[in-house]
Structures are given as structure tokens and as C-alpha cells.
Amino acid sequence: MSEPMDDVIRAERLGKTYAEGSLRTPVFDRLDFRVVPGETVAILGASGAGKSTLLHLLGGLDVPSAGEVFVAGHRMSALSDAERGRLRNRALGFVYQFHHLLPEFTALENVMMPVLLAGQAVDIAQARAKALLESVGLGHRLQHKPGELSGGERQRTAVARALVNQPACVLGDEPTGNLDEKTAANVFALMLELNRAQGTSLVLVTHDRRLAARLDRVLELHEGRLREAPPS
Ligand SMILES: Nc1ncnc2c1ncn2[C@@H]1O[C@H](COP(=O)(O)OP(=O)(O)O)[C@@H](O)[C@H]1O
Ligand SMILES: [Mg+2]
Asked: DSSP strand E in 80-195: where?
């Protein structure tokens, strides 16, 4: 067992209540969660259960109402916005249901972006992005823009972008939710394969219990509690 500070992501007594004017939406409170290096974790839960909220908090994209998130040993609440942004870019990769690629840029440029943001030179960014796109089977689509790619190819590009800085953990919010079953299974298998090859941890929100069962741990978010999912 690793020490707590070795955890890739750790959440302690995490709580989130959305508040807009007099409207308060409690999503969960006192939620504990940890991911160790290389581990793959699925998070299941009904629509509205708070899965996206949880991923946003773990990734430092939103601020918890209570509790703490640690990413690679750093207490997120102790960082400035700029420091949090740098940590996110270096230590985490994100894949969403919709690809969020920049439409004006080619697949190659989209994957280069996080490397450039990390302060690397253009030729290094280009070499790394190209190698990764080749490894996701898109060596022949480097100069295509997102609108010129199929749904599966876009998600593969998004997966390459998430992994290009060799993050400690990839956070996926239903990354295959918008694909047909066969393409979804392919992209899912690719994510697992790349994560294993790079030793990256993976936290994956999914509706698909069958895909979830292929990860090391399956958790279910239900009525504000995160519990081990019963075997399906
Ligand atoms: N920005 C927001 N403001 C207010 N309520 C929100 C906001 N985002 C999400 N919620 C509410 O929080 C709950 C959890 O949402 P979400 O995390 O998106 O669930 P899931 O991803 O599991 O479908 C839902 O009831 C949703 O309506
Ligand atoms: Mg969601």
C-alpha cells in the first residue's frame, strides 16, 4: 500500500453544494476517494448523481464547498489559479463526452497544444504529438481538422491530447458516451492500453457496467455516497 502522499489523487471529506441565489443544490458531502499510481477506477451512477461534479472537483476545474483535493500531493486549495492550471496541465489529462478539440486547428496542432502550454519548444511538441497520434492509429490524419474526422477519430485525438504530457492520471467523463457501441469499445480499449503502457492512472465515468467491469475498481455514486459497486 502506498503512503497517502503517493496517491495520484486524493479527496478527503469532499462536499459540493451548488448555490445560485436562494436555490441550493446539495450534490454530496463527506466523500472520500483515492487513486494510487497506475490504478484504473470506474465511477457509475444515474444521471444527475454528481459524477461530472466529482470529476470537476478532482481535476481542479471547480472548487469544493467542503473538504480537500490533493493532486500529486499538492493541496489544490493552497494553490493560486495559475499554479492550479499548471498542475492540471502537467499532472492530469481530461477526456470528455464531446471532444472539445479546437475546430480551427489540425489534429496534430490540437495534440501539440498542452505540450506548448507546458513551455516546450515547437519541434518537441510536434514530435511528441505525432508519435502519440500514430500510436492511436491516426498517423494518416495529422493534418485533418476536427470537422474532417469521424466521431471515433475525434475521440482518439482527444485521448492523445489527454496523454501527451504523460500525466499521472487521466479523468474521463463518459468519453465513449457519444459513440456507437463498436467505436466506443475500441476507444475504451485504446484508453486502457495506453494507460497501462504509460503507467497512468485512469478515473472513468461511464454508464456502461460491462466496460466498467474491466477496470481495477468499480465505484457507484448514489445519493451522495460513493460505494463499491456490486458485481454485475
Ligand atoms: N452549475 C450548476 N449549478 C447548479 N446545479 C448544478 C450545476 N451543475 C450541476 N448541477 C446539479 O448537480 C447535480 C449533479 O450534476 P452532475 O454532476 O452533472 O451529474 P452527473 O454527471 O452524474 O449526471 C444535478 O442535480 C445537477 O442538476
Ligand atoms: Mg455528467
From this structure: 92-95, 169-173
